[in-house]
Amino acid sequence: MSESPYLQTRRRLVAAAPREIFELLRDPAMHPVIDGSGTVRASNAVGSKLTLGSEFGMQMRLGVPYRISNTVVEFEQDRQIAWRHFSGHRWRYELEAVGSGTLVSETWDASRVRHHWLLRLMGFTRSTGPNMERTLERLAAQFPEASE
Questions:
Q1: Looking at the DSSP assignment, which residues form a beta bridge with residue 88?
Q2: What's the rounded Cα separation, in Å, for the pair 64 and 125?
Q3: What 8-state DSSP symbol labels residue 38?
Q4: pLDDT digit string (tens) for 22-70?
Q5: What CA–CA distance (Å, rounded) separates 142 from 127?
Q6: What's the distance, CA 86 to chain centroid?
Q7: Cα(78)–Cα(64) distance, integer angstroms
Q8: How would you classify residue 127: left for phi > 0, otherwise alpha for psi between -120 and 50, otherwise beta?
Q9: pTM score, two decimals?
Q10: In what order do the strands lie in the sheet containing 64-76?
Q11: Is 89 helix (H, G, I), strand (E, B) or coil?
Q12: Fewer C-beta within 10 Å: the chain N or C terminus?
């Protein structure tokens, strides 16, 4: 499902309406809960909901603890949200209603980043796809299917 090592997309059907999933995605406090990489530790934007232009920080750990700032650069209510890190790469979620659920597409877009060699050296081009698959699994687990 990848166009290049620097533009990767993964998809998963989630048993929830787009509006429910969107509300979870626009809450930075939920990002550590659904993160499949194990690097997102906590949000510095407790109690806030993201909108276009929102700036929010995350406490991270990749070997050592650090903080990263993000800006919401794409926002279409109940359909799409994306934020950009300082280095220029974007994390994007697109939601499409399908039957009684939602097809969720997560994209890591590092195509505009200047230092591709650094992403390769740090292993991001290999680890990002599997990490996104785990993120989508964790996202889906927030909306267990209703028991009959």
A1: none
A2: 20
A3: S
A4: 999 999 999 999 998 888 898 887 678 999 999 998 888 888 998 989 9
A5: 23
A6: 16
A7: 35
A8: alpha
A9: 0.90
A10: 2-4, 7-14, 101-109, 90-98, 80-85, 64-76, 55-62, 40-43
A11: coil
A12: C
